[in-house]
Every structure is written in structure tokens, then in C-alpha cells.
Amino acid sequence: MVQIDQGRASLTEDVYGRLRAAILDGRYLPGQKLKIAELCAEVQGSLGAVREALSRLLAEGLAVSESYKGFHVAPVSPADLIQLTHARIEVEKLCLASSLANGDIAWEGQLMALLHQLSRHRPLDDADAWSRLHTDFHEALVSACDNAWLLRMHRMLHEQSERYRKLGLADLTRSDSRQAERDTLSEHRELAEAAIARDVARVGVLITTHLQTTTDGLLMNPEPHGGGVERAGAAGAGP
Q1: Using one digit for the tens of pLDDT, what is the confidence trace for 42-76?
Q2: Helix 105-118 crosses helix 184-196 at what angle (to 10 degrees)?
Q3: Which helix (H) or strand (E) holds 111?
Q4: Which of 31, 106, 208, 213 could form a disulfide with 232 if both were Cys (CB 3.0 to 4.6 A apart)?
Q5: Of 220, 229, 118, nearest to 167 (Cα)?
Q6: What would the pLDDT profile of 77-94 be if each residue is shown by its tens digit?
């Protein structure tokens, strides 16, 4: 009986992980209807597993539910992105202050190793690999933080921010995009060097500029937020 329960739990976790990744990666668009029957076929999961996964996604703010309308992917908007960025900056600075106070030589080495790996990838040429390394780098920066609650909030806010970034990624390939001209490697190098120097004030300024610049670039073109939501809502299609 225990083995069966463990098997069901593993299946539910797999379904949840796949649906969550699809939303965060932008494969399920903002406002898109999440039809349970179609999701079961898509992820080869049971009705119970899909419902459990959707409940967890609701709690994380990645899905929304309305009476008689079912489940939809959580919408995005410029106002939400602005609030998200403000919250992320404040939480990130708190995590960084703790991490800089507690980081050791191994922590410094991990930062520099990830920075080196980032230098071997460009955001627009190798988006998936760069995105993974980018996430690893930002998690490494705060990994010595000794407040588990702050780290949970940091991870959630980072993932929500990545969703916006990926939804707007196509626009960043335009030749006139300021984002395409950013020297993100230098931004990350400055962050790593200031962190290793334990310069809390400079790290706070750098992370604020780093995160705000990304948001400002996305807000320059409202299409991924307004147009994307409108198209997905109008289509009303399942995954």
C-alpha cells in the first residue's frame, strides 16, 4: 500500500512539474484556458493528478480559476511586472546582504565558475543554456543567505520574472532593441566582483540596475504583455 501511495505521489509530482515548466517557459500563454481533459492527454496523467497540480499552480499564482470558467494560465500585465520587479529587488537585496555576510571561499569559487560558464554563452544565441546558467548564477549569489523564508521568496520571484523575460524574448531579437545591445556579461561580472569584495552597498545598486533594466526593456514593447494576453484569451485554446 505504501509503494502505491509513493507511486501516485511521484506521478502527481511529475504532472505538476511538467505543467509548471510549460507555464514558466511560455509554452502555455497568459490567459490560455487549461482544459483538464486535454491536460490529462498532454501530460499522460490522471484526472486526480492534473487537478492536484492545478491546485498547486493556483497557490503559486501561475494559474487562476473562476466559477463556471475553469482554469486559465495567470495573466500578465505591465502593472504586474512593475510590482513584481519592485518586490524582487527588495527581497534580492535582503538575501544578498545575508549571503555576503556568510559566504565562504567555496561560495566565491562557485560564483566565479558560473560567471566563466556564462561568458561562453550569449542570451540570444543559446537561450536555453544561458537561461539555466543565469538562474544558477543568481541563486549562487544568494545561496549563503541564512534565512530560508527569504530564499523561498527569492526563488518564486525569480521564476515569475523569468516567465516575463521568456514571453518577451522574441522581441529582444530585434536589431533596435536596447536589450539586444546590453553587455549582460559585464553586469554579472560586476555583481560577482562586488559580492566577493563584500561591498553590500554596491551590490544593492548593481542588482537594482540589473533587474530594472530588464523590466524597462520589456515595458518598451507592450506586445508580450497586452497583445499576448489578448491573443491567448481570444483563442481560448487548450494546450
Answers
A1: 888 888 888 899 999 999 889 999 877 889 999 99
A2: 170
A3: helix 105-118
A4: 31
A5: 229
A6: 999 999 999 999 999 999
Query: Is residue 165 very low, low, confident or very high in pLDDT (cuts 50, 70, 90)?
Result: confident
Residue 143 C-alpha cell reads as: 545561496
Per-residue b or e along 21-35, where b marks 16 or more CB atoms closer than 10 Å to that residue's CB? ebbbebebbbbbbbb
Q: State the fold for domain 78-224.
A: Four Helix Bundle (Hemerythrin (Met), subunit A) (1.20.120)
At residue 106, the 3 state secondary structure works out as: helix
pLDDT in tens, 178-234: 445 678 899 999 999 999 999 999 999 999 999 999 999 888 865 544 433 333 333
Distance between CA 169 and CA 219 in Å, rounded? Answer: 12
How far, in Å, CA of 28 to CA of 24, rounded? 8
What does the angle CA 188 – CA 208 – CA 88 come to, to the nearest 5 degrees? 100
Helices (H) and strands (E) in the chain, counts: 10, 3
- Most distant CA pair in the chain, distance: 60
Amino acid at 53: A
SS3 66: strand
Q: What is the CATH number of domain 2-75?
A: 1.10.10.10
Beta bridge partners of 72: 33, 64
Chain centroid to CA 180: 19
Rounded to 5 degrees, what are φ and ψ at 61? 80, 15
Q: Assess contact for 20 and 62: CB atoms under 8 A.
A: yes
Nearest CA to 226 out of 168, 161, 162 is that of: 168
Domain ranges for the chain, please list them: 2-75, 78-224
